[in-house]
Amino acid sequence: MSVDFGEPRTPSIFAWLQAARPLAAANIALPILFGSALAYGDQRRFSAGALGLALGFGLLDQLFIVFANDYADAEADQVNTTYNLFSGGSRVIPQGKLSRQSLGRAALLMAALLLIYASAVGLLADVSVWFPLTLAALFLLWAYSFPPIRLSFRGGGELLQALGLGVVLPLIGFSAQTGGLHDLSWTSLMPAFLIGYAGNITTALPDHPADAATGKFTYAVRASPRVARRNSLILIGCAALGTPIIVPDAGYTRSAALIALVFALLLANLRNLDLAEASNRPACRLFVLLNGGAISLLFGGWALLLWLGG
Questions:
Q1: Cβ distance 274 to 226 under 8 Å?
Q2: DSSP states of 122-157
Q3: pTM of the entire structure?
Q4: Which of 26, 125, 162, 309 has its CA 20 to 30 A from that of 220?
Q5: Within 10 Å of residue 95's Cβ, how many Cβ atoms?
Q6: Alpha carbon distance 167, 181 (integer Å)
């Protein structure tokens, strides 16, 4: 399919703000916050300055991700008519506000800035693990969106997003507080990995028709949208039940309260399971919103329980 990706006449600051997708910031910030809370829960170490450095990493990483994905998914986004606020890219290329080339250049710039930032923090704050973690983050996005691997199209992109959101970003938050990864309870990342996987399935649901038409083998394309919706609920539910793994000293009442709140959102979505096709945009949007709410609640709830202690 031929798509016109020519340079718009007057790209504006508002177009770049749209391309930055501010609403997606929580997807990056909450895993980092969770990692910082793990450091406090395990070692009673917390510094607001260190959290700020980690969130600075998250900002650059988010900009790299959204710009690179807009560039890589330009053709699929061009034919996507079922997108919503949580999917389908930023829409700046289909709407003619920015060119594909400008997004590609911006992605390269953000990747370079991320490497420089991580190297500087690693040297000045003695967090040497940040450099390999940054390389891992860049590799995961490259393998997700770009040839020759391009798992978001070939199938298996969910695994890469789970590693990025559920492992790499929490490790950034944790190591910012502790200076490394010593004494990290690696099993604490298992539930986070599950919701990273579920998050990828969820946000791809509205894009199913365009993904199927352009040969992008997301989970919903491979397994069917209904199976994808069902399995996203199962994964989030399993992650919620893993709360005692993360906060074994939180006490039954606190852990049960968090699990109950998450399951309330999942049960609300279960009622919507058969209706939330991409063609039914309001129902699909609600499904994605409730799943996203459950994921955010878990990351935020785990962080709160870790800070409250036993």
A1: yes
A2: HHHTT-TTHHHHHHHHHHHHHHHHSTTT-HHHHS-H
A3: 0.93
A4: 26
A5: 12
A6: 12
